[in-house]
Amino acid sequence: MIQVAAAATNGVSIPSRKVCRADAMNMFKKRMCDLREKLKSGVVTSTVSLAVDAWQASNTDGYLAVTGHWI
């Protein structure tokens, strides 16, 4: 698949899964720090609503998602 994508994009290199994971984790950490600062600084003055969802995949992997919304 990588060879097909590289041929279709005129040789543009596709990052490995390790690079993608590292980039995603770095972005997550930065956004989390930014969000913490906003919540601590009082920029967010309205109520924050949290939603939680948990489920289990057929291979017994468990997942938990927490989302927060404010207006």
Automatic annotation (TrEMBL):
Q: Which domain of life is it from?
A: Eukaryota
Q: What is this protein called?
A: Uncharacterized protein
